[in-house]
Amino acid sequence: MLKMGRFLILIFVSICGLSSHFFAQQSGARPLTPKMANLDVAKMSPKVKSKESTAFSFDQNFLNQIKSPEVTEAYKLLGAGKIGDAIAEFQKYKEENWFAAYGLACAFDQPGFRDIAISTLNASLSKNPGNAFMLYKLGELYFNEKDYSNSEKQFITLVNLDNSRSDVWYELGFLYMMHEDLQNFAEFCFTKVQMLDPKNANAPIELARIHSLEGNIKTSLRDLEQAFNNGFTNETFIEQDPDLMNVKSVPEFNQLMKKYFQK
Hints:
This protein is an all-alpha fold.
């Protein structure tokens, strides 16, 4: 009788567990909230991204969405390095066409006029809230201006709109990795990138840096090997990165580097 009672209890617990898991899946993820608003930015430690910066360009899929020949032409001018001409054209259409406002911000960013680029995007976002292109660019601009709190806000808005964006999770993770009190959030973000994009070569590098700083050498080595298997080839970055100093002190690190880079 006692065994039967335990058996029934196990079934009940299993059903409850499955039910709670089901409803958690159906209810959707809780929206992220800012972590940096009240933090001391003096504790930020500037770092170099493992992710290589991409050249300033717009792919054909992006250009195909524009519909306006005049705005498309302005993008071509910008791509050809004719920034002044591009700005003049974008200015004509920025009020009625968010592609023009976005292009204008990108154009002003090229010579370093980030304040104008930021105000341009904010003005257009007031008419086009939730625009993913502008939110991402705005997050980058605020980051480059060292306005980390506002940068975080843009990326959090994006994640809350679409939590499948691995590129946005990476940006958030990098922001959090620079603050000594937010390492656990950084680790969460980079782990999320790996879940969404298992072949990503940059998230394992960032995790390797975090684990090395924590003294978790075995896990850091594992992260590095995953990054190399996923195609990370910047040997100079690995050799020069101070965050990897702890893991670089063990013989296994040299063996790993020899395996992937010194064939």
